[in-house]
Amino acid sequence: MEPYNDLSRDELIQRLLALEKEFNGYVDESKELEEFLESETNRLTQQVTDLQTQSAKLQDRLDEARKENQSYLHQISTLEDDKKTQIDQLTAKVRTLERQVIDTEVANDGLESKLRILELSKGNEDARTGELLERLAILEDDNIEKDQLLINTQQRVKRLETENQFLLQQREKYEKISKLMTINRTELKVSKFQTPPIND
Fold it and tell me: Where do the TM regions start and end (predicted)?
């Protein structure tokens, strides 16, 4: 740059005009740059605002998803507890049925034993009745105290017949009970392997 003292008046004016033009150009460029920077700043600010809005929405969705997840976990836990309760109830029911089957078998064995005793008793009474009838025939043939012995013997025969009838009734009663026990035992054994459905 030449020293301004060495310039003539016209050269100095030309130099000033050039500097003014250069300054005006710089000012114009500065304004354009300022406008560009301001526009870019606004654009970036809007992007940041949009990103913050999107981030807030995503955070809301994340919070909602977490709440739904907690709700699902609670429902799963409730279902597992219900299922465990149902399994425990079914297990207890199966054990109860098994005990009932055992009790029924024991009771049935007792009834069968009583039936055998009744049959044996009936056989003994039949034999005694036959024996009395034979004695009655002998008494009738021998004609010894015929009337009194006949009356006593007939009364005893009648009493034995009554007892025999009672034994027959008891036998029929125990046979019916035994049949019912056998049917109930069969139903219990069948129900033992029939597990009720579990609600999912």
Answer: none
How far is residue 4's CA from residue 163's CA, in Å, rounded to a whole number? Answer: 162
**Mean confidence (pLDDT) of the chain:** 79
Q: How many contiguous H segments (helices) and E segments (strands) does the chain have? A: 2, 0
How many CB atoms lie under 10 A from the CB of residue 26? Answer: 10
> Is the confidence at residue 197, as pLDDT, over 60?
no
In single-letter form, the type of residue at position 141 comes to D
Q: Is 144 left (phi over 0), alpha (psi -120 to 50) or beta?
A: beta
Would you list the domain boundaries of the chain? 7-192
Concatenated DSSP letters for 119-187?
HHHHHHHHHHHHHHHHHHHHHHHHTTTHHHHHHHHHHHHHHHHHHHHHHHHHHHHHHHHHHHHHHHHHH
Tell me 196's DSSP state: P
